[in-house]
Structure formats: structure tokens, C-alpha cells
Queue: 3 jobs
Job 1
Amino acid sequence: MSARVNLGQLVIRNWPIKLAAMFFAIMLYVAVAAQQPLSQTFAMRLAVVIPPGRTVRQQPAGVTVVITGTGSEILKLRSFPRVIRKVIPDTFSTSLWRTQLTAADIELPKGIGVQIADIRPRDVEILLDSVFPRVKVEAESGYVVRGLSITPSLAHLVGPENSLAKVDSVTTLPTVLSSVNGPFFQTVPIDTAPLGVVRISPKSVRMAGEVTAIIERSIAGVPIATAASGFTGFGLTPERVAVTVRGPESRVNLLTRDSVRVVAHLVGKAGPGGYARLTVSAPPGITAHAVPDSVGLKRKTGRG
């Protein structure tokens, strides 16, 4: 009985000191673990911007990106955009577009100490339609082309096998539509001169599209996020700003505070008189800037 009492007293003896020692041991473990190098795999979506009037016959598969860094830096990637954006040039006139993904294609937040270790797959192929429209749409001032389609987007070719093997795609005759300020439709002949003995059906395609007005509006009360460490002990003043957005009317009118992201980038060192420059991320096709474009720093009080 005395042995049990002695054992119990041994366990509870100096328990505040033992509890504090355990707490500091756990904190030390967490601090060390956060500085250990590790890698994490992220599933990314490949978003391809195609030339006006073209269509994608086969949607690209997803991309896997492996990022390495310390545990504390990896944790900062919780909200980075999981999208890889590639643009096919408007001058591209064939049906199979090939590109190679690089680390520069991954949009990582500024100021985070991580590296791109691997991208799978690196080589990407995008299959487009076989009819390339050589049509230039000139919208009136204050308008922008919003949507352009071609019907049909595929052509049927008949001819000798060796001649067909040389044809990857066909184009329309050069056409210019000027001073467009509303929906438009146009029948455009296909350029058959380069085909030689190869016959094509149909011999013309129908172009359709619309234009929309460009407008500008302000979104008030957008919260500011900090880009990386360096703001410890300091807050931003103000903590919210207005964001001016500009783009097609139909899209700009749908934007909310959640559609844009304002990030503060520390200029120099945090301290009295310090400030941070603001950048704004907006959806593709929308231009945006913060008002004001920089904010001051204020030291946090004991209550936060």
C-alpha cells in the first residue's frame, strides 16, 4: 500500500514543472518539424486560352506538380491558385498544338521559399478543330469582341492518300469585319487554293459572334492579405481598400469582393513609417488595381 502511495506522490510531485516541461518539449518538436524539408503533391488544372473562333476537340488532362520546401513554407500554399494557364497564339493555324510546361508556368505566391521539383506531364498536346478562321473583327471604340464561333469547325477532305497526308488544317479566306457594335454573322469561303487536287466539304463556314461594352466599376471593402512573413507585430492601415475593375460589361457586373484578391508586399523593413505595396489578382480578361495602391503599417496592440 505504501509503495502505491509513494508512486502516486512521485507522479504528482512538482506537476506544474513537469507539465511546463512537456509543453516546451512539444513546442520544440513542432518548431523543429516545421523547418524539416518535405515535398507535397498538388493537382493542378490546365486552362488553355485558344484563338478566337477555334474550339478544343479534346480537353487537356490534369497536371500534377510536386513542390518542395520546409514545413512552415509549404503551409503557406493553402490558398495559391491551382491553375496553370497557357495561351495558344492567335496566329496558330494547325490542329495540334504542343507545349512544354516549366516551373515558370506555376503561379506561386511571392516571398515563399519553395521550389518546383517536378511537373507531370511536362509535354502537353492540345487538339483543336481543323478549320482556322482568318477573320479579323474590329469592334467600335469602347467595345470588345466577346465570343466568336465557327460552324462547322471540321471539314471533310477527299483526295489521293499522299495529298491528304500533307493537309493538317485548312483556313478561310482573309476577311475583315469593321465597326462592329453588336451581334454579327458572316459566311466566309474556305481557301481551297493550297489544297490542289484535294476536294473539301463544305466550301464555306459561318462565323458568328458578339461584342460587349467595356465598363469600369469600383468594388469597396476588399480585405488585404499579406504576401509572406515580415509583418509580425504589425497590422495594415487601412485593412480594406477599394478595387477598380475594368472589362466586358457582362463580366464586370458579376464581380464581387470574392472575385479579386488584394495582397500586400512589404517594402523595406516593418517599422514606423513603413508601408506595403498592393497588387490585385483578378479573373482573366479583367484588369484591376487597388485604391489606394499602398497602405501603411501600424504596430499591433496587446489585444491583437
Job 2
Amino acid sequence: MNAPLSPTGRLPRTAQPVYLDDKLRQIEESGRLGYRSKTLPTWCPGCGYFAIVDGLTSALRQLDIPNEDAVVVSGIGCSSRFPFFVNTYGMHTLHGRALPCATGVKTANEALTVVAVGGDGDGFAIGGGHVPHAARRNVDITYLLLDNAIYGLTKGQTSPTSALGFKTPTSPYENADQPLNPLLMLLSYGASWVGQTYAGRPDHLKRMIVEAMQHRGFSYLHILSPCVTFDKTDRTYQNLDLQVRELPASHDPSDKLAAMREALRPDHPALGVFYSEQRHTLGDALDGLVEKAGGSNAAREPAALKQAGKKARRR
């Protein structure tokens, strides 16, 4: 489902003031804190990543996934601090290597819910070679790509998704490189689920994370998020509020060509599910190979894997 936005694209104003004590009580009662670690996020005040970590923990709660059955895998960058702030198993891996590590985790234990998290630099610069293979293999994981179109951790260099003409400390005479179109890339790579959301729409963000995690196969969720410290002119909340739109009500998520047409409008990014299909996953393919070789998949069944995990934890 594609959530409706206001005509102006802005967040609706609340009629009543929000008090801190009431908000804290609401969060405690929601159960989301059970999925938050004791480590507080270290992002800059106003960073969109705060909304994303809240969206992921809310999704885990809504889907009722046990903490010990979830794994968050990241690379390097501001976005890749995620595993520290979530009360699940986690892996903070090498720069650009979140997807192969997440693939290994899921292949070793199909019973786990695996979420890979990375930024535009981590995912489409040094890690760009891993994306098409995770997509075409249809690894049963969710990839949250947090795109702020800048290298924030290293103090504001241009990234693969930075806009033409964007000025940074390393491009004082404007960025001359054409930005990548991640949505179009993932659609052409064969991802079985492709969606887009925006950190400034927390309710829509949470719903999209839930839907991505419910998909069986490789789900790619592109999350637009401002860098409030190093980008004061391009991908700001003010600009994104005016630019984002919802996918047309007539959009058919099974129509890949229609999805590609919508992805070709990056100046007015659409929010919602661009494409979705059901097909065999990497796990299915590996099970088939085992059977062809005369082996047994009994040890890879979810119940057997969970039981093995419980025994390992008792040790």
C-alpha cells in the first residue's frame, strides 16, 4: 500500500502540543524499547537516521520477531552504526561488504531475519559490485539503503548519488559527475522488491520497512534522508518536503517497465512500492542443489535451525 501524503508534501500539524513525559510513556508502552540497545545513537541532531532506527525497531516489534532471531549487518559510514543501536545480533563489517556478509548469515541459517543497512557511498561506491549479485540471486534479506547523497562520516565529500553542481569541501567548483539512479539500477539488476520512502515521513517509513521485511526474497528499500550538517542546499528537509510525491494510485507493482518509468523522475521522487514479484530465493536454489546431489535439507529447516541456535546459546 502506498501511503497518502498531504497536498503540500509537509507533515500535518498536530492540534495539541506533545509533552516529553507523554511521549516517553507512549514509547515505553509500544514495546519498541525492547529492540533498542543501551547505546544511544551518535548522529548529529536532526539527522534523518534517528527516524530510521525507530522505524526498524517498530517494524521488528510489529512483526513480533524475537530479538535473538534478527541480525542487522552493516558496512562503514554514518548509517552503518546501526547495529550498535539495535538490540539484535549484529555485524559491523568492512566498507561496502554488508551484502556478502548478510548473504552468508542468511545462507548459514535460514531461520534468521537478516537486515543489511548501508549508505549511498557504502552501497554504490566501494560496495557497488555486490548489489547486482544479491539482487539477481534473490537472497532472502532486506537491504535498507540510507541515501543522504554525501559522505557524512568523512566530513562532506560527494557520493555516487550527489547532484550535479553540488558543492562540497572536495568539489568547491561544483560536482561534475552524473549521479547514479539506485532505483533504476535495482530494477534492472532483478531485485524482487523495490520501494522508496523518506525519513521525513516516519509513519510511511515504518510501513515500508514492515512491507520490505515481509517480502520473501531480496527487498530493497531506498530511504531518502538529509545530512543536516554537511548539506545545507540540496537534499534538505525543506527541499524534499516539496519534491516527494506518492506513486500514482494506478501504479501496478507487477509492471517492471512502469516501475522504471517512475524511477526516471529523480527530481520528484515517488514514495511507495515500485515493484514486487515472487520467485525462488537463493535458499530455494541451494536446497535444490542439495536434493540433486542426494543430500538432505532436514538440518536447514527453520525448526531445526532454531533448535540448534537454542542449544548453542545454552552453551
Job 3
Amino acid sequence: MDRHRQYGSAEVRGQLQIVHFADWGPPRKPTFQPMGNVGNGRQREYKAAGNAALPFGFAKRGFAVSVVVMHKNSLDAQQCAEAARKSQAVMHDKQNERDTRELRIDKVGVRGLRFPIQIRDKARSKQNTIATIGMFVDLPKEFKGTHMSRFIEVLNAHGSVVHVENITDILHAMQKKLNAATAHLEMEFPFFLTKKAPVTEMESVMDYTARFDATASAKDIDFVLTVKANVTTLCPCSKAISEYGAHNQRGLCTVQIRSRKAVWIEDLIAIIESSASSELFSLLKRRDEKAVTERAYENPVFVEDLVRNVALKLNAHRDVTWYKVEAENFESIHNHNAYACIEKG
């Protein structure tokens, strides 16, 4: 086709007619003749014709041009804006529909959200880590659903890093934002300590798991701290019946507490590790390994002993008002685990 005779097109969007032109060749000014209707007649194509003047005066070589003109039966600009506003206002809020099943939901929200947090650290005053977060509220029986995006809004409103001191504010913000009687916040995160090997005193970093579970009911706040630490346990029975050696294994001890005032995560870790046959280390040289092995052999501990040892120390802690201690040994000579639990409060 002669590139001096290119095509343009027109389309109607709402009450605006959008006319497109492309590559008119030499800077002649073509006019447009309708080439027929397309579809339902609301779209038409036009063809450049001769040297007649282009009504819009924009076409030049190598340029693509779109021209907006008002349809002959169009509204004025103010009316168009009003129509657009009304079209947006008709979006339906499905969550606010009434539910007829007459069942209240205790907790509904988001879970598995990872977010930076900053917590208090006994050695360095603060520690930055990443938490896996859950945020929930209650839902009255009258409502079909909650607004999930509002949980994320609340969290991000407190900045790019959540501080532990802000937990109460976050709970109350959830109550207000989602019009809820109760709000729940759970945060689980790795906690790191620098430890020295028992003989060589070489330093290495150990990771533990900590968790905050906080609930706001009206203005009342309930807070539970959970700490999980791996330990070594050596079987007292195996030691007693064997001429040499005894089976030992890694065990996981989980401690949950409520307290009158804040308790250091490090203090709970120390209680757990001192209650087992031996604590664990990331880095051990041969002299360290010998010392750890002999320490475990000299302190045999059943899973029952582990939870009792921890419970005795928590009983003596003046700020602890409730606790639950669980221990699970991943048995080295059995195809099952050993488990024990004590709860008080």
C-alpha cells in the first residue's frame, strides 16, 4: 500500500470518541472519509484521502497520533466525572452481607505473614529478626466475612519494623479498624545467642525459637511467651543396665509462661538448658566434644526429669504466674518419641 494512504481508527469509550492516526507519510494534511460501520456501529474506520486538510492538524511523518473528541451526544466534563464517580460507588462489599447461619467465629484473619521485627536482647539491648505473624479478630454471627486487607494496613501503619513494645497498640488498632471485641496477634521468630564452647571457648551462634501470643479483650491484654530449645538427654535406665555407654538423643523442650512483668527470653533458655543432660553448641572442637559427652553421661535425665527440673525453677521465679512445660525426646534406639508435660497456674 502507498504509505501516503495509511489508516486511522476511531472508537467510542463511554462518551468520548478516541481517534487514532499513524504514519501519514509526507506532511500533507489528509481528510477522513468514513469506510463503514464496525460491529454495532459504535466503531468506525477512516481512510486518508488526498491533500485535504486534517481537521485536527496533528499528523506528521513518523508520528502516531491519538485525538480525543466529544461525541455529538456526549455529556459535558462535569457530567462525565459524576458518572465515573457513581460507577465506582457501586462496588459491592460482600463481607458486610448478613449471614443467616447464626454462628459466631472466634478467630478469623491472616496467618503465615513474614515481617521484620525488633525485640529486646539482654546482651545487645535489641535484636533484629524476621517473624511469621498471624493476626485475627472475632466475627459476630451477623456478618458474612472480615476485611483481610485491613490486617495488613494495621501492621504496616506501625512502620517497616514491628517493635515488641507496639504489640498492645497493634491489638487495639485491629479492634478499632475491624470493629471487633477481641483481637489476637501471634509472632514466631528465630532468636540468636552467641555461645562459647565449654573448653576452647570458641564462639558460635545458636538459634532458638521464640513466640509471642497476645490477645486483647476490650482493654484487657493477655500475653504468653513461648521459648523452644533443643537439648541432649541421656537415658538413666540405659546407663544403669549397661556395662558401658548409654543411649542419648536430642530433645526439644518447650516452655510457655504468663508473668507479672517481662521475662527475658535468654533466662528461659538458661532454665531449659540447665535442666537437661547437656546443652547444645554450634561449634565444638575435640576437647569440647569430650567435655559435652562426659557431662551428659554424668547427668542422665528422663523426659519426666526434664519437665520436672524446669517446673521447679519456674516455681521459684517470682514473676511467673502460669506455665506449661513440654519435653519431647527423639529416641535414638526406638522408632517413637518420648513425651512429658506439666502445666501450672
